[in-house]
Design goal:
By secondary structure, the protein is of the alpha/beta class. It has helices at 21-29, 48-56, 69-80; strands at 2-4, 9-11, 38-42, 61-66, 88-92, 106-107. It contains 3 helices and 6 strands, in the order E-E-H-E-H-E-H-E-E.
Length: 108
């Protein structure tokens, strides 16, 4: 089953976290005080919030992680098929095992 937005679609067959009101609102309402050049999405699920942030912040690099392998795989598919794929990176790992190579301006 796919969830369609104006500029992209989300595949959500295997992910533990399906598209819901909370994710859509989080992606829409994030309002940092300064422009976030590096963004980390923790527990990305389908990749929805990461994709929404890539759409909003056109100069940002977005890194997204998820502990669930099926979710990370689906997030990878969703980000690769989005118009902003070149700025989205998905990693399958737990937060405590994540070793970033850079600092983040925004963590969601």
């Amino acid at each position: 089953m796919r969830f369609h937005f104006k500029s992209f679609s989300i595949k959500q067959e295997q992910s533990a976290m399906k598209v819901g009101t909370d994710g859509v609102l989080l992606g829409a309402w994030v309002n940092p005080k300064s422009y976030p050049h590096q963004i980390l999405d923790v527990g990305t699920g389908t990749g929805l919030v990461a994709i929404m942030l890539a759409q909003r912040f056109i100069r940002s690099q977005i890194h997204a992680i998820d502990i669930d392998q099926a979710s990370a795989k689906e997030a990878l598919f969703n980000t690769q098929t989005s118009p902003w794929s070149e700025r989205l990176n998905i990693t399958h790992c737990a937060l405590q095992d994540y070793n970033p190579s850079n600092k983040y301006d925004l963590i969601v």
